[in-house]
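Please annotate the following for my students:
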Amino acid sequence: MNAHAKPPAPSDLPEWDLSDLYADRSDPRIDLDLIEAKRANDTLIGLKGRFVESRADAAALGALIDQGLNLYEQATNGLWSVGAYASLAASTARDDAAWARFEGDLRTRSSQIAADSLFFTLELNELEDAEIEAAFAAHPVARRWAPWVRRLRLSRPHELSADLERLLVDRAPAVANWSRLYDETLAKLTAKVGREYLTLPETLNRLSDPSAARRKQAANGLAEALHDRTPTIALVLNTLAFEKQVEDRWRNYAYPAQSRHIANEVDAEAVNAMAEAVVESYAATSHRYYAAKAKVMGRKTLDYWDRNAPLDAAAPRTYDWREAEAVVLESFQALAPKFADQAKTFFARPWIDARPRPGKQSGAYSHPVTATRHPYVFMNYMGERRDVLTLAHELGHAVHQTLCSPLGTLLADTPLTLAETASIFGEGLVFERLLAEASPADRKALLAGKIEDGLNSVVRQIAFHQFETRFHDARREGELSPDEIGALWLEVMGESLGPAIRLNDGYEHYWAYVSHFVHAPFYVYAYAFGDLLVRALMEKRREDPVAFAPLYEEMLSAGGTKTYVEALAPFGLDPRKKDFWAAGMRDIARLVEEFEALV
């Protein structure tokens, strides 16, 4: 593989073709799928009341549960298919009002259809555990739905009346427009960087430029662009946080993150133990690493825009798209041929959108659509090492989503705590390959990159979690101004980054581009959860690669049918213990020690 002075040309990068979903906004299949979804939903509505009425007849109840969930999944497949198409298409055209309107209108139509079947989950939760278990025993075919029912019943103590639940569903599309406003605000953002005007993804990429002057220009340009938009973004964040407060109060959630923990099927104690282990390791990991990095760069302290900077001013190693494809597929092949074969399909077909362009939102994801379709991968590929790792991350998601699709849409849906394992594992496989092929001169830079990836996935995400927690706690006392939000951000990030990173003027606005705060409150800890969990899994793979692969495939193929404790039991791992998380942090600390030895 040859080094390149420039990232790949846009013409070399793939764009997805969504026509196997729908041809365009006017495709008649959109209305047909909505009609079919409504037909299944209407049939389900015809069963209203019969679940409770049949509670004394276990066999009849079991048959009804099986019939109801099959209808519910049929409706879900139709609604999610059109919803995914609208979201995917709009994500590459956030500057196009027609796509925004289309996405909003479809969200409203889908919500209205789904709202009519709201009774179903409420009625299932009126049943007692013993009644449901008897129904599964009397009608064994229905037992396949037991994991989904288990997850449903976690929310049982927090459900509202049918009328209130319907109110929340009916108004959800309007509430979602706050997220839409946020996305459109950032998609239209351009930062003046020297003589250039860069989009958000381009500006963030410039923060890892070999030139310190160009990094500083990008940082200041982004800070100014975000400053101009923080009144709008602060209003979005404050409003959604207040919406969440109201709903949480009615649902009797004890603290803001509780609903996320329930959705993830994770114990608050496990999350708190993880967060404590990470925070306690700040000095041994992030503080220590950034001090060592400053020394390598001939500095006592680093400006915040140097956090992910290359160690020297040499042009970074870049990868064209075909090189990235080869690295990812070879890495997946080393784990098991099946993983590489699944990933190859995404390169062979137009299922990846990697080309950055105006109007395309920032970030990366793999959208599963439904179990009856195939996933689509979204990213902004700039040709750097971290982009290769991002590609591996999202293809890890895509392979996971493909492996569990035979379960059907409802059972394939995986809690975030396990959904991130395949993606982070994919990154780890690629890094191991890059490190094995590196020259001695490149090893230090790769090691630095690995440490920084770990710090970004674990320390930074737990810092984000701490920021969200403090923000939501403060929001209970009233709306926070952009300056107050910025002060919280500086406090939390300063704690995590340590004294070797200088938080220059302008950094107080950087909370504004972290989209998870808007789209998925308290999502971020799942990255740390997944990263530290994967460190344990990769250690198990090193112990016995042959035995590991089938166990790993079985774990991914189980989708959402197992809890995180059940999924990890075959590997002899127990993530409920603080020592489990501390061991992962010690792994990062050992990498820092290895880096220091090279300084």
